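Module 6 notes. Inverse folding takes a fixed backbone as the condition and produces residue identities as the prediction. Think of it as a translation problem where the source language is geometry and the target language is the twenty amino acids. Below is one complete input and output pair. Work through it position by position during the lab.
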């Protein structure tokens, strides 16, 4: 935002706005640009000062009109000229005497009507009007902010009624599909829903969605632009004489019908733009906004007064863009359509009328800059458009905003911060006029090739993007003709049959129709538009889109006209063939995403180049933005040194991102929980901060003292929340359900734990011991970090694991969530100790040569508002929240909130979270939980992945989340090249574990999640003789060999109450009576111990490139896991590990533990896990034998329940003498020593 910053720094001087570098002539009009930029910045500053910023200001539709607030219907209307006012409607039989409204100092009338028996007093879909008195006369008007308006169709000329639209939850349309990614080049299909049907009646939104959208998708358009959406009482106005700005045109259906249309478009990969008419208003007094003008001054009206307030060409009223409430109305109007209906952008109609005081009437623009930048410019309107474009692109960075301007004003499509108006595209409006002129006034031989090319198609400002089109929709209006009808006239009725030869007129007409549209598309701009129906000839229209889709020529800056032969009319005859000199890969290679290395790994990936190119481009763009604005990922990820509570220059500084807060305080023990003396200030980015100087050289907020962030929600309520970046949080264990308090953790130097041991080197293959500290003790209580370090780590080391993976480290208020419902992301779970205690654990592990991974939960957050991050969501839009809004922000199976990974501050929070745990606690990597939920918009719910690549690379992919994971993996491996990062993904998405630079997501390993499911299926549902050897081998080897997997035989989830560990499934209740080695083993125990060993060993040896075991399963821990809860009388009996079972010499648990030690030691010696050599040589279904080689070892497994074999022949890759390296049947492992 260089221009903006310079403008502010120079007192709005704008002495060197970036646009002067692009166009030196603009510098001659510095005074104009200085004044415009000054007005824009002042207006923006005033809105920030008095309304909390543009984003808050633009939520007017949540305040004005009829809304539900705290058990009541609240109606507000700005009508300063009214002397008295009432709300009338069906709900009060149109008698307003009991519903008089009150007026505030700003001209806003309001009334609060309490619900009756819990139901709104104004029912959904009931009629309402605003009745007010002026000069002694009472009039009724439709509420200005009404969201639906209807007319009695059977009564000619009947007035419209406002309709209160607030359907019950079950009747509201819920969006099921995310917005598609913004196309590099919009190919726009312009449509009017009302005239889209085949019947002689108004088409509906649902008919358009079901019948028309598939047609335009088949023609490979990527964007649909809808006209006539805002309510307009005159149907013949094409939707350009708007009466009700927030209301969906009722001719075509309800607001929920329109939502269905947009969602259907999104499901087809189509972006949806809307024609927005903010240039003028219908002069209809009865039905529209003009009814609020009763002759008052411009300051009390939506419109200018006198001639300035009236467009004589359009017979419409002109907005007063300098008026505060007009700005609120129009900016909120844009936001309403984007937020409530998921529109992807807008086409602003009538921009020329807005830009100039004379509205462009009787003006012939020659291109002289004095025509654009002088006293004729309506600076108020320019400032409004700058504010609007700034707002739209901040709310939705991928918004597409198009301007309809015939004047050609420069800088219309330059960013606001560079001094421009901020539109993305402008329509090339001279092109259709040129074609009409030629078709109506010139013979074919009179067509000028140079004029077509140089004066029309290429006559545009190349720093700004244009949308080219060959014919306008108003060429189709009565009194004019479509291009096809101009070319072929009445012969279109009689000569279009393919069953007879073409007439010369039809032959010429079809040829020119195709050529004109194609040359306009190829040479006329950076995008193109076609009005509904003009795409016929249909097959050629589809073919025209194909080279654009494949070669991306519309987005190319290379454009050379090499021949404009006036004599031969080469362009008219189309004698120069169209060619594609480079393929799609070449076309995108300049962006660094064209020829990704992953295409060499799997040729099938090339079929999804568009997807990979898009997500790689988004990753590179995001990374570049962070580098540009934050100094790089490494600096960006140091957020924990800026946010939360930190010491800076003899003061305590606290920062919190809470853009939805209206006021904020820091409270705690240090100020007796009274924040009146510790008010915080808010910057332009929604960050609240306070600086508290040290007292007598000591921090004002003592170490280990409680703190909270108190903020005003904007609805009159103050709430207290645990700081989002807090590093420690505790609760009063003596009080049931007590809330957590944030604890400022900043121990003096003498109390801080200092690491003594370096990180161990990264092993070739991780052998991971998965552990939960809280349940790791033998006593029925929560175990501590120090107890785990001193008692459990030596056991892990003795069993020859090289990595320990810790669950439930992040603070989680609900203990039974297994740590997966995180409330405080930077806080160590206080149940097991302090941050210093956890550092002791990690350092102790390093001293034993054990690397330490941490379960990180960035897939969702606890829905707990009191204790967690969800408490910062107070109903604001997603750009101001950590989470998505609506259903997209809620995981219905997990009852948790879902992050908005496209949000700048969410990226800072999550990336800093990773760095915090690595830097401060010396973790050696992470296991990312719930990755499947992150990868897909459907979160994997009710999905059965069959392996089709279309399941992985398409519109269901949450590209924002994928980009976050790419950034995270890039960052972690840059900070710590030897980091180990594991993904928990059940879908099997390819390239998840390929490096980011290759086009992958960047993980080192993925969990082989199908393996434990296979074993559970066999153990629960099949007899031993029904086990399939090929099925087992297939499950263990069914993985992408270019990506590494961590194999495991049983999941910790299998141990949770309601299920059993594998050992308990195998031996069940006999584990209570039959595990004594002082008596012979029963057949159940004998079989159980044998299969426990074999299943874990074959999983390790054949299932992946690493191995994982959950705490206690190495010795066959019995029973299940049951966290303390009301249902078990808050017992910890099943929430612990009974290590003594493995230690008691006369119990058989020792055999399973010894075998676990031995199989890990075997990999230590022979490194078979890291070997790429893996050959399955025998899968004997009859004898139940599996033979395979891994590395230098030959593995032979006999799964037959009763047969043993002598002299069984085993083929080997290498000749020589072999000896037994490990035997599960050895006596030392509880076998029979056969």
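Target side of the pair, the amino acids:
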């Amino acid at each position: 935002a260089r221009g903006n910053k310079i403008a502010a720094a120079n007192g709005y001087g704008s002495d060197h706005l970036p646009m002067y570098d692009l166009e030196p002539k603009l510098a001659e009009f510095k005074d104009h640009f200085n004044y415009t930029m000054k007005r824009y910045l002042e207006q923006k500053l005033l809105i920030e000062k008095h309304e909390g910023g543009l984003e808050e200001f633009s939520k007017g539709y949540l305040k004005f009109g009829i809304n539900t607030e705290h058990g009541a219907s609240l109606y507000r209307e700005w009508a300063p000229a009214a002397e008295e006012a009432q709300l009338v409607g069906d709900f009060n039989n149109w008698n307003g005497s009991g519903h008089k409204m009150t007026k505030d100092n700003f001209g806003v009338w309001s009334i609060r009507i309490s619900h009756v028996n819990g139901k709104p007093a104004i029912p959904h879909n009931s009629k309402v009007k605003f009745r007010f008195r002026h000069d002694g006369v009472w009039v009724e008007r439709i509420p200005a902010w009404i969201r639906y308006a209807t007319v009695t169709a059977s009564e000619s000329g009947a007035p419209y009624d406002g309709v209160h639209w607030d359907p019950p939850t079950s009747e509201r349309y819920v969006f099921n599909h995310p917005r598609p990614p913004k196309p590099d080049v919009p190919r726009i299909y312009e449509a009017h829903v009302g005239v889209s049907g085949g019947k002689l009646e108004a088409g509906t939104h649902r008919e358009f969605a079901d019948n028309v959208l598939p047609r335009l998708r088949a023609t490979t358009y990527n964007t649909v632009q809808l006209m006539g959406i805002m309510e307009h009482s005159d149907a013949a106005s094409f939707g350009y004489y708007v009466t009700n700005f927030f209301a969906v045109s009722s001719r075509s259906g309800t607001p929920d019908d329109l939502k269905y249309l947009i969602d259907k478009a999104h499901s087809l990969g189509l972006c949806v733009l809307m024609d927005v008419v903010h240039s003028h208003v219908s002069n209809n007094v009865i039905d529209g906004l003009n009814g609020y003008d009763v002759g008052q001054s411009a300051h009390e009206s939506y419109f200018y007064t006198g001639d300035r307030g009236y467009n004589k060409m359009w017979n419409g009223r002109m907005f007063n863009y300098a008026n505060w409430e007009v700005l609120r109305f129009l900016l909120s109007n844009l936001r309403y359509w984007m937020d409530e209906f998921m529109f992807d952008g807008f086409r602003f109609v009538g921009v020329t009328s807005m830009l100039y005081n004379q509205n462009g009437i009787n003006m012939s623009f020659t291109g002289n800059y004095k025509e654009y930048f002088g006293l004729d410019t309506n600076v108020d309107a320019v400032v409004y458009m700058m504010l609007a474009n700034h707002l739209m692109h901040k709310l939705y960075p991928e918004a597409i905003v198009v301007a309809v301007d015939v004047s050609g004003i420069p800088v219309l499509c330059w960013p606001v911060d560079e001094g421009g108006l901020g539109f993305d595209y402008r329509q090339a409006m001279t092109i259709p006029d040129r074609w009409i002129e030629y078709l109506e006034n010139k013979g074919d031989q009179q067509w000028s090739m140079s004029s077509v090319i140089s004066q029309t198609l290429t006559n545009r400002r190349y720093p700004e993007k244009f949308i080219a089109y060959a014919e306008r929709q108003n060429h189709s209006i009565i009194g004019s003709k479509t291009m096809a009808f101009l070319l072929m006239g009445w012969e279109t009725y009689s000569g279009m049959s393919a069953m007879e030869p073409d007439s010369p007129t039809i032959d010429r007409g079809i040829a020119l129709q195709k050529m004109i549209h194609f040359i306009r598309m190829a040479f006329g701009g950076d995008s193109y538009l076609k009005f509904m129906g003009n795409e016929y000839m249909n097959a050629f229209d589809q073919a025209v889109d194909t080279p654009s889709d494949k070669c991306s020529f519309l987005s190319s800056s290379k454009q050379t006209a090499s021949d404009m032969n006036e004599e031969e009319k080469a362009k008219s005859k189309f004698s120069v063939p169209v060619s594609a000199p480079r393929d799609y890969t070449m076309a995108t290679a300049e962006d660094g995403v064209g020829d990704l290395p992953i295409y060499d790994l799997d040729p099938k990936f090339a079929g999804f180049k568009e997807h990979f190119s898009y997500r790689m481009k988004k990753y590179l763009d995001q990374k570049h933005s962070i580098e540009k604005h934050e100094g790089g990922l490494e600096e960006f990820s140091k957020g924990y040194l800026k946010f939360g509570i930190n010491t800076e220059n003899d003061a305590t500084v606290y920062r919190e991102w809470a853009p939805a807060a209206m006021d904020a305080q820091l409270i705690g023990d240090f100020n007796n929980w009274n924040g009146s003396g510790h008010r915080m200030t808010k910057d332009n980015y929604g960050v609240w901060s306070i600086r508290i100087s040290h007292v007598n050289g000591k921090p004002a907020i003592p170490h280990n003292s409680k703190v909270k962030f108190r903020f005003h929600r904007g609805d009159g309520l103050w709430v207290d929340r645990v700081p989002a970046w807090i590093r420690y949080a505790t609760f009063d264990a003596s009080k049931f359900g007590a809330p957590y308090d944030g604890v400022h953790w900043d121990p003096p130097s003498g109390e801080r734990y200092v690491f003594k041991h370096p990180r161990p080197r990264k092993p070739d293959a991780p052998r991971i011991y998965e552990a939960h500290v809280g349940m790791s003790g033998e006593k029925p209580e929560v175990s501590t970090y120090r107890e785990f370090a001193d008692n459990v780590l030596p056991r892990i080391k003795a069993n020859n694991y090289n990595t320990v993976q810790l669950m439930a480290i992040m603070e989680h208020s609900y203990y039974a969530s297994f740590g997966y419902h995180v409330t405080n992301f930077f806080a160590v779970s206080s149940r097991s100790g302090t941050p210093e205690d956890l550092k002791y654990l990690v350092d102790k592990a390093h001293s034993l040569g054990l690397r330490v991974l941490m379960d990180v939960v960035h897939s969702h957050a606890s829905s707990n508002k009191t204790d967690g991050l969800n408490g910062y969501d107070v109903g604001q839009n997603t750009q101001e929240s950590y989470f998505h809004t609506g259903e997209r922000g809620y995981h219905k199976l997990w009852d948790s909130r879902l992050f908005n990974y496209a949000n700048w501050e969410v990226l800072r929070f999550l990336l800093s979270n990773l760095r915090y745990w690595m830097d401060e606690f010396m973790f050696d990597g992470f296991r990312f939980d719930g990755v499947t939920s992150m990868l897909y918009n459907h979160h994997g719910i009710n999905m059965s992945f069959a392996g089709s690549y279309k399941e992985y690379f398409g519109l269901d992919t949450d590209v924002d989340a994928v980009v976050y994971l790419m950034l995270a993996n890039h960052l972690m491996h840059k900070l710590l090249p030897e980091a180990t990062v594991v993904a928990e993904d059940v879908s099997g998405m390819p390239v998840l574990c390929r490096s980011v630079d290759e086009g992958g997501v960047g993980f080192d390993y993925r969990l082989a999640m199908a393996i434990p499911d296979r074993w559970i299926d066999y153990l629960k549902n099949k007899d031993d003789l029904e086990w399939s050897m090929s099925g087992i081998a297939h499950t263990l080897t069914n993985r992408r060999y270019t990506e590494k997997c961590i194999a495991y035989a049983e999941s910790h989830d299998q141990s949770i109450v309601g299920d059993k560990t594998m050992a308990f499934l195998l031996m069940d209740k006999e584990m209570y009576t039959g595990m004594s080695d002082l008596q012979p083993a029963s057949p159940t125990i004998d079989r159980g111990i044998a299969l426990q060993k074999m299943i874990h060993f074959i999983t390790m040896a054949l299932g992946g490139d690493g191995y994982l075991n959950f705490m206690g399963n190495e010795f066959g821990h019995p029973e299940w896991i049951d966290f303390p809860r009301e249902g078990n009388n808050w017992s910890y009996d099943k929430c612990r590990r009974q290590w003594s079972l493995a230690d008691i010499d006369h119990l058989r648990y020792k055999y399973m533990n010894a075998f676990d030690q031995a199989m890990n030691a075997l990999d230590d010696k022979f490194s078979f896990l890291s070997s790429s050599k893996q050959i399955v040589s025998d899968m004997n279904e009859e004898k139940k034998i599996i033979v395979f080689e891994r590395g230098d070892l030959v593995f032979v497994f006999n799964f037959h329940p009763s047969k043993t074999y002598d002299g069984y022949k085993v083929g080997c890759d290498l000749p020589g003498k072999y000896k037994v390296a490990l035997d599960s049947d050895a006596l030392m492992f509880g076998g029979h020593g056969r």
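Reference fact for the lab report: The chain has 31 helices and 47 strands.
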